[in-house]
Amino acid sequence: MAETMNGAESLVRTLVAGGVEVCFTNPGTSEMHFVAALDRVEGMACVLFLFEGGATGAADGYARMADKPASTLLHLGPGLANGLANLHNARRARSPIVNIVGEHATYHRIHDAPLTSNIEGFARPVSAWLRMGTTAEAIAADGADAIAAARTAPGRIATLILPADTAWNPGTGVAPVPAIPERARAGDDALKRAVAALASGAPVVLHLSDRAVRGEGRRIAARIADKTGATLLAMAANARIDRGAGTVPIERLPYPIDAAIETLAPFRHVILVGATPPVGFFAYPGKPSLLSAPDAETIVLAHPEEDQIEALERLAEAVGASAEVAPDRMAPSAGPRPELPTSGALADAAIGQVLGALIPEGAIVCDESITTGRNFFGQTHAAAPHSWLQLGGGAIGLGIPMATGAAVACPDRKVISLQADGSALYTAQALWTQARERLDVVTLIWSNRSYAILRHELTNVGATNPGPKAIGMLTLDDPAIDWVSLAKGFGVEARRVENLADFVDVFRVSLGCRGPFLIEVAL
């Protein structure tokens, strides 16, 4: 007699049938039936992390490159809590994730065992969809609903809580995934307002993000700009921009508040396409929260959940834009590819030149550079075609896991992780996963041995004349972290460089290798 399929196996089979092919996990006792089911189901890869923040950050990076959800598998409320920061980042990036959290058996929760917690309370702030499983017979259908919720535009986190008995009791087989709604059409009134703004003669900025900064959206926006004289500007942080030679370059709104205000000051109309209104990351004494000019009109042409490409196409038609982008707008004619510097200090500008010259075609750049890399974007417009992923939610510790997930999604593409040293320490354990999975990731650690951004923020918020206690909380040099030893301890090949020539040489070597490689760049 055939063995009855339990709830866990029916859930895993439903996930695979619904296109969820990877599970990023750090499991525990409550999830063991799900873990066991992975051996009975073909088509689900399982990637282990030593810390749950690595698993959730990897699910974010994977979703950005695969354009579909992976699942996580986390252990009870504390495991979810460990992963919350990068779920916050994923929510801001609008990444689809099926987030599965184990729970005590339904009848055990009332006894308040030591790991009992309010999992729903932890999950709700980062979840667009949240459900507590109740029976093994229904858990596959719950999983199917989670897939549909995660894949609903613009991409959402769907959290399914999996009580242990809903996993071990008999299930009912694979459940079909409900129909996923198409992106909504942007409204006609918004289109009319955008057309009027572009015809007004006043300066207009098209502020873009989400699908509008991907290749097709940016090309349509460039045609509109060619016709109307509007300026293109991406949000300060974007989930993914496919860029480089042969694409339309676009600048980002600067992160520093004074520079952002100055950038937006000339514009009387701000048209949002897949973007949110430009606001400061933080409040600063005597400075505005909203960064556009006080008298500027903000027009939402298409919300993130709406069809931004179709809205841009309608706008292009309404203003009589050309069918093709003007040739002089395309990279590299918009700016020559940087040449490799042959001399000088190992400083930010020189590093940007090296990246612009050496980024290989098809690379995925995962950027958590923080202060060091603010100008790298402008120096790489004409690099070989590549994808650029950013930290959008502001919770540091995403970079190494995001690169890990991107490499799982695209095993045939070189991943380059641009990583500040302070934030790398939050999730350095993900280097071990890169080694275990033999992922093709080069991690560049900007080793200034400090939280350099916070030195700038002391001035920005008016906390001047910091003393030794304040400075001590912003430095990482006593003792200094030895990134080469740390990486090698996790199984990753590593080198430290202290001058520009060595950086060029070692970076070239790392690009020619297959597998994880870390370079500590002494700044």
From TrEMBL:
Alphabetical UniProt keywords: Thiamine pyrophosphate
- What Pfam family is a match for this entry? TPP_enzyme_N
The chain positions of domain Thiamine pyrophosphate enzyme TPP-binding read 381-521
Q: Which CDD domains match?
A: TPP_BFDC, TPP_PYR_POX_like
Superkingdom is: Bacteria
Q: Which residues form the Thiamine pyrophosphate enzyme N-terminal TPP-binding domain?
A: 5-109
Q: What family is reported? A: Belongs to the TPP enzyme family.
Instruction: Report the protein name in the record.
Output: Acetolactate synthase large subunit IlvX
Q: Which organism is it from?
A: Methylobacterium cerastii
